[in-house]
Amino acid sequence: MKTITDRISFLPSSENPLSADVYIIRGDQKNYVVDVGSCDAAYDLISSLGKRTIIITHFHDDHMKNLRRLDVVDEELYLTAQDRRVLATDAYNPELLDEGDGQKPVNFPKLGTLVESPTEIRDGVMLVIAPIPSSHAKGSLGVIVDDEYLILGDGYYSSAKGYNVSLLSEEIKTLKALSFTRVIMSHDETVYSRDEVIAELESYYAKRTKDSPYIPI
Hints:
By secondary structure, the chain is an alpha+beta fold. It has one domain: 4-Layer Sandwich (Metallo-beta-lactamase, Chain A), CATH 3.60.15.10.
């Protein structure tokens, strides 16, 4: 585990298996887990926590695969409609899955609590869970801690095609409207400033052409 503040720590991402950073935000009454990763170390860490609420930044396996085996009630799982659709697919269906040890995923279907607009949680720490338009994955969320740190998941990154012009424009507008000063991205242990992240995205947007819906990077 690595520490960012006295409230925020994280298990760094891994390459084999590909597993995203897992963030733990310490509240007064419970822990808030941002992304659950896909590796055993992430599963063991989250399983060891007491009271917890899970927030998924987006539906890619490296960020939420461990939901297959974590027991969580819908009221303590925050996600988007796109995440919910993925959780309903065969890949997360307990009747079809077998991880090789004969164990089936627990507590399905996981419907979770949908986040469709900024949602605030106060527990000695203030969290704002906000939808973030993203070229990387439809239905992405960011988590702002105490109006300072924005945990952005993969929301900064483009898709394989590049940045979608429309989505990038909406992302820049959204970020400018939110209150934060620093940015934390998955798969990257650097803490960035608000201004440099927005300026970098604006520099990509400036490269758009009228003939293409994508900006290749």
